[in-house]
Fold each of these.
Amino acid sequence: MKLPAFIKTYDGVAVLDFPGMEIEPGKIYAVIGANGSGKSTFAKILSGVLPADRKVQLPQSVGYLPQKPYAFRMSTKKNILLGGSEEAKANELMWALQISHLEKKRADRLSGGETARMAIARLMMKAFDLVILDEPTAAMDIETTAAAESLILDYTGATGCATILVTHSLQQARRVADEALFFYKGKLMESGAKERLLYHPTQPETKRFLEFYGQ
């Protein structure tokens, strides 16, 4: 699958200049970098939520989970069923994400971590060619993060989609990713297999980032 090249500017200043790249089905790509490096802008443009400076051809089937997912004023289960009509699948996803006990609770009254798990379940009711997850576990504790990561791995393997995981956690990137992309000041500074990039980076900016955030 080809991710298109694009540029995003604000007031004439480029905040993201992505050269484009090939990604493979069935793989998870961790997007890492400091705050303000362009990670979320990258996710929003690929999902079609935010336009690039020029129109780009995006993959036809894209699932997107933003940093702050929306919960409709209906039960948790009904929110999940907005993603697909298979009730058995919804039950399975709720169980996997440890929110079965919340199925009748109004979703707009869930905590941040519960909302995130509900939104992951809603997205995974359907198969996509490309899935983009922007900090999906940021509001979760250790146990529920592990459950979500396990489901992300299972979903990617079962559907054969390519998954882009924006994360602030190097540990999470090491646990679940196949490849890693490092953004620095709006540019894709380095990419490659996670073992190489996260342990033996070639660019000085990547090395400094990994040293600062605790390699």
Amino acid sequence: MAPKLGYLLPTREQIMEGKPDAASLLGLAARAEAEGFDSVWVGDSLLARPRHEPLTLLAGVAGRVPRVELGTAVLLPALRNPVLLAHQVATLDQVSEGRLILGVGFAADVANIRAEFAAAGVPFEKRIGRMMEGLRLCRALWTGQPVDWEGRWPVRQGVLAPTPYRAGGPPLWIGGNLPTSLERAGKFFDGWFPIAPAADAFGAGLVRVREIAKAAGRDPASIAGAMYLTIAMDEDAAKAKARLDSFLERYYLRAAAAIRAHQACYAGPASGVAAYLNGYARAGAGHLVIRFAGAHETHLTALAKVRASLGW
């Protein structure tokens, strides 16, 4: 089966360029839908990499584009009170009529993200436990039944309304490549959504995630496999690489080579990107979420043509 193709809105890039308006982002979402993309995604950060608040923006996207799925790539649940998060997500799922996918993560250990957690009053070292417990509480609240919860967030006979459009709430996807990350994905999540590795290693990781799911008594086929990829296209490969490196260095304030070592990236002509994407499809990826290194309108049209050439 051909993978779905997703598009990451440049929320961070727009802020970096001094363009905070949401209208242009909604326009890009509409353009992606018109070009045949299957989903539109947004990232998340408070202070480390400032950008539009993802759930609020996705509500706007939901009202603008009626067909595509909507997703977070990725949301940081540990920064949020899970009772409030459950309410926001349930409402967004209702607004989008069940089109939401909640991609989640626990954040990289770098100085500006540690500072972001401190500013939000969240202990960075406790972020994984907070995320896991918070998502369990969200799922309990999404049932619409009275919830009693003993833990970081005590709840007494709490009843959430509205519940999500889809019974049980939107699918939860998580990334990470460490053995513990694969364990979490297989045991507790609905999808595995990493930003690395290369296609062959992705395929092996997905097999492992599904083995873990089966051992935990879950249906391994129910675990989605997805990839987050950064792409710069140009028929001149050197220009494409220069654009990608410039984008990564401005975005992360680190050497591009260091970022490329930990994130799946492609720079080169359209003919090469077809083979690149097809490698992940053959490895089992059912959804490819693409972040473009600038020139979004041009890239959207070019990638739509690549997709057509692949027969997807």
Amino acid sequence: MAEIIVADEAGACYGVERALDLVLRTAEQADGPVFTLGPLIHNPQVVAELEARGVAVTEDAAVPAGSTLVLRTHGVTPEVEQAAHDAGAKVLDATCPFVKRVHRVAERLERDGYQVIVVGEKGHPEVEGTMGHLKAATIVENAEQVADLELAKKVGVVVQTTLAKDVLAGVVAQLACRVDELRVHNTICEATAGHQGACARLAKTVDVMVVVGGKNSANTTHLADIARQHCAGTHHIETPDELQGSWFEGARRIGITAGASTPASQIEVVRQAIAGLAG
């Protein structure tokens, strides 16, 4: 019988749980239609469950008057939020508090005269939201891109809350030798950092590692990358249907971790499925 171990820190973070609670309460109490501006979180199964409860996803902030529009956990630009108010919707802000902190820190750096660099993934909604709070900023995805930048004497750095910490470290190392003053705010959230550390520790000790969470989730994808560095038998899945019995043949220890958008109930379903396959 294989031993199945769930990482010490795994699954839905405070920001996700807060947002889900807000949306579910809103769906029960609202008189009119309820929308989320983009997927509330990067978890297709949860988004589908919300739709089944009457919470639709929209990419247009100008929803019908009388509707309720919930701003996603990743945050939005001020212009998008204003468009929702102008349309006559009731706007509820489910932006993660840690993302809000990135906005505040970045705005302060810009006010203080720093060239602001946002370390994160181009096109990611959180990064786009942060950029919308600044007059001018540069997105850097990795250390290699620093070489192509024209840098001011004073540079300030913020980082996507779900980014892998080694990416930030690489970018900072390249910037440090090129500017007179470098102010770095490590805005990777505590849950993300904790998940990454717990994932690495567990992956070193198991034969197979299963990472549960949306394929479109940045933090879950980073967990899978970290796990692969320590365990060749790493698999990233969204649902138990993707599990294959062959993965667990001969395995004595099986590890499970999950991204910050993965509720505990989804982790437990996967754990039970693995127990059935590996038993």
Amino acid sequence: MSQTVIVDYNSGNLHSAHKAFVKLGEKVANSEIKLTSDPDIVAKADRIVLPGVGSFRDCRFALAERGLDEAIISAVNGRGIPFFGICVGMQLMASIGYEHGRTEGFNWVPGEVKPLKRQYKEMKIPHMGWNELNDVSEHPIFSGVEEGTDVYFVHSYQLEAENDAHCIASTDYGGRITAAVGFENRVGLQFHPEKSQSAGLQIIANFLAWKPN
């Protein structure tokens, strides 16, 4: 049985995410789901899920002070295992974030994480609630997920990728914003799959079954 780890670095309540992955782990991919803050376990995992709630800067520093960033990078870069970033976990895939100061990310998806811009008076920030997916690519993570599917967002910052090919789905909120990124063995979602009902569960199942080339 393979092991999928959800990285716990005190970034918020992980109960709903953990529950969703456990529900699908054995059923989809004969995978044990383990919630852990132990860098040694993360470094040896077969798949890594990095959630994130809070600021880019706080999450990045919380990973570093626990040695979890090095464990993640070693496993993902060194062994090529599948990586799944959620919300701030996805934003950390970028080069730089500007929330509470300039902070370096993992630099897997060249680009910057910047505040959402209020394009009209009634536009609320954070972007919170259901919104549809556009420009959905043929990436395996979206198998069975149709263009226009509604998913659940909660964020005030967005990843602006330098290479549009890294954006594998978008949404419209005062303009086009990145909803998902993908690069080699790494994928990330700005929205929360664990809160996105059947579509979110389908995406989680797809990740657990995904075998990057």
